[in-house]
Design goal:
Elements: H1 2-5, E1 25-30, H2 32-35, H3 44-59, E2 63-68, H4 71-79, H5 89-113, E3 118-123, H6 125-129, H7 131-146, E4 150-155, H8 169-179, E5 184-189, E6 194-195, E7 207-208, E8 210-211, H9 216-219, H10 235-247, E9 251-256, H11 262-269, E10 273-275, H12 283-290, E11 296-300, H13 302-309, E12 319-324, E13 331-335, E14 341-346, H14 351-357, H15 365-369, E15 383-385
Parallel strand pairs: 1-2, 1-5, 2-4, 3-4, 5-9, 8-10, 11-13
Antiparallel strand pairs: 6-7, 9-10, 11-12, 13-14, 14-15
C-alpha cells in the first residue's frame, strides 16, 4: 500500500495544473507559521517574495485570491498576550481585531509596490454556510477578481465564536475556492506535502505525491496538530480542505512555504502533494458538499444506502432514526448505522414530523401526519453524496 501511495507522479509535474494557462483562478493560503516569526513580527522579506510570485502570475493572466492567516499572532505580540493569543476565546478575538490592521496594511503595501490593488474580505463560517450570504460573498469575489484585484481573505476571528467558526484557514481556503469557482487551491505550509505518517516522528514515513480520493486510508495518515504552535491547522484540516476542493472539481496542493518564492519554486520543481479534482459539483450541490455544519441527521438502512448511490431520493421507509432540531429546508446529514456521513441534503420535513414517519411506507404518511405527505424525506434534487 505504502509503495503504491508513494509511487512517482505521472510524467507531467503536479504543479502544471496550477499554471496560469490551465488554472484561470487560483486560491493561495498562507499559514501563521510562515507569515509571522517567533517574535510575532511579519516575515516581510519572505512575504515580498510571495507577492513577487503573485505579481508574475497576475501578469500571465491568472486571477488570484489570498487566504492569509496571521492576525491573531500579530495582535498577540502587540497586546502582550500569552500562548500566541490563543489562551482563551476572548484573547483570540482581541488579538485578531488588533493584528488584522497590521496584516492588511502589509498586504496592501506590498501588493501596491508591485502595481496590484488589494481588497480585504473578513468572513465567518455563517457567511459561507448560509446560502444567501454565500451567494453574496461569491458575487463579491467574482467581481473583485474580474477587476484584477487581489482579495486578501481571513476568518473574522474578532466576532467568531467557538461554536461558529472555521477554526483553520485550510478549510476556509477550500470554501473560498468553491465560492470563487476557482480551478485550484494551493496551501503553503511548513511541510512539503502529505506523508504516510508524521515524518517528524516516523523516519520510515513516505512522501505521497498524488491523491485521487480522500478516504479512510488517507485520513489515517493525518496528524491533527500544528507544528508551530502558532496556527490552528494540521494535516487533518488540510485533508478536509482537499475533500471540499475535490467536491467542487478543483485541484488542491499542499506545498512547502519554507523557501523564498514558494509559488515559483513549486512551478519549477513540482514538489508537493496534489489532490486531483474530480468531475465536481456546481451550484447548490457544491455548496452542500462543502458545508461544515448541519442542523440534524437521518440514519438510514442498507436498502436506502443502495438507493442513494443509484441517485434516488431518500424515502422514509429507508430511514431508521432522526436526530437534531431542524425545520423544513434546513441542511441535514444522512448517515449509516455507524454514523458515517453518506450525503447531505435539504429536509422536506421538520424533525418532529420526520421522526413520525421513520420506517413507514409512503401510503401511511397521510394518516401519521394528518396532512398530504411529500414525495420524499430528502429529494434527490436537493441532496449530494459526500
Amino acid at each position: 500500500m505504502v509503495a503504491a501511495l508513494a509511487a512517482q507522479a505521472s510524467s507531467a509535474r503536479v504543479s502544471d495544473v496550477f499554471a496560469p494557462a490551465q488554472c484561470h483562478r487560483l486560491i493561495v493560503k498562507i499559514g501563521s507559521a510562515l507569515l509571522v516569526d517567533r517574535s510575532g513580527h511579519i516575515r516581510r522579506d519572505w512575504l515580498e517574495t510571495v507577492v513577487a510570485d503573485v505579481a508574475q502570475r497576475r501578469m500571465a493572466g491568472q486571477q488570484i485570491a489570498i487566504v492569509s492567516s496571521g492576525a491573531i499572532a500579530l495582535g498577540a505580540r502587540v497586546l502582550g498576550l500569552p500562548k500566541g493569543g490563543r489562551a482563551s476565546l476572548e484573547d483570540a478575538q482581541a488579538a485578531a481585531a488588533t493584528g488584522q490592521i497590521g496584516l492588511s496594511s502589509a498586504w496592501a503595501q506590498l501588493l501596491h509596490d508591485r502595481g496590484l490593488v488589494a481588497a480585504q474580505m473578513l468572513v465567518t463560517l455563517d457567511d459561507l454556510e448560509d446560502r444567501r450570504r454565500y451567494l453574496n460573498a461569491a458575487a463579491t469575489l467574482d467581481r473583485l477578481l474580474a477587476l484584477g484585484v487581489v482579495p486578501v481573505i481571513n476568518e473574522n476571528d474578532s466576532v467568531a465564536t467557538t461554536e461558529i467558526r472555521f477554526g483553520d484557514n485550510d478549510r476556509l481556503a477550500a470554501r473560498v475556492g468553491q465560492a470563487a469557482a476557482a480551478a485550484g487551491v494551493i496551501l503553503l505550509s511548513d511541510i512539503d506535502g502529505l506523508y504516510t505518517a508524521n515524518p517528524g516522528v516516523d523516519p520510515s514515513a513516505a512522501f505521497v505525491p498524488e491523491v485521487r480520493i480522500v478516504d479512510a486510508r488517507i485520513r489515517a495518515m493525518a496528524d491533527g496538530g500544528s507544528a508551530s504552535g502558532m496556527g490552528s491547522g494540521g494535516m487533518f484540516s488540510k485533508l478536509e480542505a482537499a475533500r471540499i476542493a475535490q467536491g467542487s472539481g478543483a485541484h488542491l496542493a499542499i506545498v512547502s512555504g519554507k523557501v523564498d518564492h514558494p509559488l515559483s519554486r513549486f512551478a519549477e520543481t513540482g514538489r508537493g502533494t496534489l489532490f486531483w479534482g474530480g468531475e465536481g459539483k456546481r451550484g447548490r450541490k457544491a455548496w452542500l458538499a462543502g458545508r461544515l455544519t448541519s442542523r440534524g441527521r437521518i440514519t438510514v438502512d442498507a436498502g436506502a444506502i443502495d438507493a442513494l448511490r443509484k441517485g434516488r431520493s431518500l424515502l422514509a421507509a429507508g430511514a431508521t432514526a432522526v436526530a437534531g432540531q431542524f425545520a423544513r429546508g434546513d441542511v441535514v446529514e444522512i448517515c449509516d448505522a455507524d454514523g458515517a456521513i453518506l450525503a447531505r441534503g435539504l429536509a422536506e420535513y421538520d424533525a418532529t414530523d420526520a421522526a413520525r414517519i421513520v420506517g413507514h411506507r409512503s401510503d401511511a404518511h397521510g394518516e401519521l401526519l394528518g396532512y398530504a405527505p411529500r414525495s420524499a424525506m430528502i429529494h434527490r434534487d436537493h441532496m449530494v453524496l459526500v
